[in-house]
Write a sequence for this structure.
């Protein structure tokens, strides 16, 4: 689980100092599905980057299973990301020159699994997102929703503990959005994942048991429904 204490992140933009997160304290239990909402520029992506060890806090701690991500070396952080944390982004971030299957396989390269079993696991992951028959397609030959499914398979093929998703439905039409949210909620229920889902969309947030709001770097818990 995550234990976040007094997390502050400031950025310098020329002479200006932007306080993207201010003294955020928060616990996220194992297996929770949490939505993070709030206005643009509020600090949502910054929080996700801190949870994923993609960037370091200015002050405060982000502990994952008792280990402070801020105290890890770059090598340790890279290893933690490769094994423990899956990411999904708004613009899918697939490698355009690799097939869907190869894109999913890239997530297993750091774990030094034999090539054959890498391919088998990637195929199974594609299957679990309903794309078992599209492994040889390039991203450009897939719809937006299908590309996001590939990205979800890539995030989950390593069996991470945590899935961090930044506006995963932001580029999708409503119908595709609902399919992707159904898929993510289904995977969350099946796999006991901890999921943190940043979204502007209150229809998406309405599907989660817990909601946080971040505005001007300050976080508050929204009442459970
Ligand atoms: N790398 C950076 N350098 C400087 N300032 C940054 C950087 N990243 C974010 N910021 C600033 O930090 C604040 C929070 O940004 P963040 O991206 O976390 O917002 P957000 O809630 O994700 O917004 P959006 O909904 O538009 O994605 C903003 O004022 C932004 O300009
Ligand atoms: Mg953002």
């Amino acid at each position: 689980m995550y234990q976040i204490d007094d997390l502050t992140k400031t950025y310098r933009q020329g002479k200006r100092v932007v306080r993207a997160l201010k003294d955020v304290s928060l616990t996220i239990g194992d297996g929770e599905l949490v939505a993070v909402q709030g206005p643009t520029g509020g600090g949502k992506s910054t929080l996700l980057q801190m949870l994923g060890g993609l960037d370091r806090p200015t002050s405060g701690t982000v502990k994952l299973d008792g280990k402070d991500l801020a105290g890890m070396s770059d090598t340790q952080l890279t290893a933690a990301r490769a094994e423990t944390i899956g990411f999904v982004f708004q613009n899918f971030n697939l490698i355009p020159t690799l097939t869907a299957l190869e894109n999913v396989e890239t997530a297993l390269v750091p774990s030094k699994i034999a090539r054959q079993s890498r391919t088998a696991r990637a195929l199974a992951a594609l299957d679990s997102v309903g794309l078992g028959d599209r492994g040889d397609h390039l991203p450009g030959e897939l719809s937006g929703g299908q590309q996001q499914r590939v990205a979800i398979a890539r995030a989950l093929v390593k069996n991470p503990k945590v899935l961090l998703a930044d506006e995963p439905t932001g580029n999708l039409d409503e119908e595709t959005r609902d399919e992707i949210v159904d898929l993510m909620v289904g995977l969350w229920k099946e796999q006991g994942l901890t999921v943190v889902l940043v979204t502007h969309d209150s229809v998406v947030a309405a599907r989660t048991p817990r909601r946080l709001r971040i505005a001007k770097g300050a976080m508050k818990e929204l009442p459970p429904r």
Observations:
- The longest strand covers residues 16-28.
- Residues 174-191 form the longest helix (18 residues).
